[in-house]
Write a structure and sequence with these properties.
Layout lengths: L2 H7 L3 H8 L6 H6 L5 H13 L3 E6 L7 H20 L6 E5 L12 H19 L3 E3 L7 H14 L5 E4 L5 H8 L5 E5 L14 H17 L3 E5 L3 H13 L8 E5 L4 H9 L4 E7 L4 H10 L4 H11 L1
Parallel strand pairs: 1-2, 1-8, 2-3, 4-5, 5-6, 6-7, 7-8
The chain binds flavin-adenine dinucleotide.
């Protein structure tokens, strides 16, 4: 499988320099990232909402080791939340935040800074009439992220969590988080994780995803089913019916540019569907994770690289 080698290659500075020389407008980048500015994000969101979809916006960036950059990320979220509110889009659009982009990885008091920054974004989201979901990153941050989420939920109980089915621990985390009012996004997981903490075989990850879905759908919380996998989508629908859940008491989530026809099909069938819209200049890590998930994109990617360099 190409997934792990690609994620390892993505850490090379040379590969990063080569790839980031491509403009955001080049085919392979714009397929997954609608643009770099607040305006681009709001325009893409407006288009999705016109199609009956919801959105969650991610200002791209991660692993920030610089306090100023973390503060700039917070400012970008405040800016986009105010633009969403001004354009009447906030009701159907929330934001997704990576704690490592708002300071979690800072050497001294990273967790404290990330919590304060996340609080500021939650506050602005609430004022705009919407919510925040805290993205989940690699396994070394899971405990810290869930700890910060617990703190945030004391003041902002509407804050969404993300759990990754590829981690051995996740079924148990689902049980802990399946309480009333708890919004939980379940995804398979996008990072290169060791065997000691994560299932390596796709089939095992899928089986774990189903076990976790069972817990969340039977629980009292609000499951957010983040997958493009047709089998997982069918199983989620069947579990919702089995648990007597009406449409709108859970939602489907997919990434911008992936299976747009399926996004529309589900929305037309009355399901709530939210599209994750990443934007900003720091698209490299995000793009490499998407390529690693779908090695058949590589030919297209290499073609884009050759034609722009
Ligand atoms: C809304 C949302 C939020 C997410 N948030 C997080 C997060 O916080 N943390 C995290 O670790 N991961 C996150 N992810 C990513 C997730 O963990 C997976 O890496 C990703 O969704 C691919 O898994 P899948 O469930 O679609 O299943 P897969 O088995 O990978 O794919 C199923 C099918 O989907 C299509 N597909 C999947 N990926 C691609 C692609 N890149 N390009 C084209 N087609 C594709 C293909 O048809 C494929 O056969 C998120 C995903 C979504 C949808």
């Amino acid at each position: 499988m190409l997934r792990q080698p690609l994620l390892v290659l993505a850490r090379s500075d040379r590969v990063k320099r080569l790839v980031t020389a491509m403009p955001v407008s080049s085919g392979i980048v714009s397929r997954y990232v609608p643009g770099e500015s607040t305006h681009d994000a709001v325009t893409a969101t407006g288009g999705l909402i016109e199609k009956g979809l919801h959105a969650t916006l991610d200002f791209l960036g991660e692993d920030t080791l610089d306090r100023e950059q973390a503060d700039a990320t917070v400012a970008a979220y405040l800016d986009v939340l105010s633009a969403l509110s001004d354009n009447g889009l906030a009701r159907n659009t929330e934001v997704s935040v990576k704690l490592s982009a708002v300071g979690q990885a800072l050497p001294d008091n990273g967790e404290k800074v990330a919590l304060e920054n996340a609080r500021t974004i939650c506050h602005a989201a609430r004022n705009a009439g919407t919510t925040v979901t805290v993205d989940m990153e690699d396994h070394t941050t899971t405990d810290s992220t869930l700890g910060i989420l617990r703190e945030l939920r004391k003041d902002f109980p509407e804050t969404g969590a993300v759990l990754q089915a590829y981690l051995h621990r996740t079924e148990s985390d689902c049980r802990d988080l399946a309480y009333e009012g708890s919004r939980v996004r379940l995804c398979k997981g996008a990072y290169n994780e060791p065997e000691s903490v994560a299932f390596q075989d796709k089939h095992d990850v899928d089986k774990s995803y189903v076990r976790c879905l069972k817990v969340l759908m039977a629980g009292q919380g609000y499951p957010m089913v983040a997958t493009h996998d047709p089998r997982m989508i069918d199983i989620a629908g069947a579990l919702a019916t089995r648990n007597g859940r009406a449409q709108g008491t859970y939602e489907y989530q997919m990434l911008f540019g992936i299976r747009p026809d399926e996004q529309s099909r589900l929305a037309e069938a009355g399901e709530k569907v939210r599209v994750y819209v990443p934007y900003g200049q720091e698209w490299y890590g995000y793009l490499m994770r998407r390529l690693a998930e779908r090695p058949s994109n590589l030919t297209f990617f290499l073609h884009s690289l050759v034609s722009t360099t």
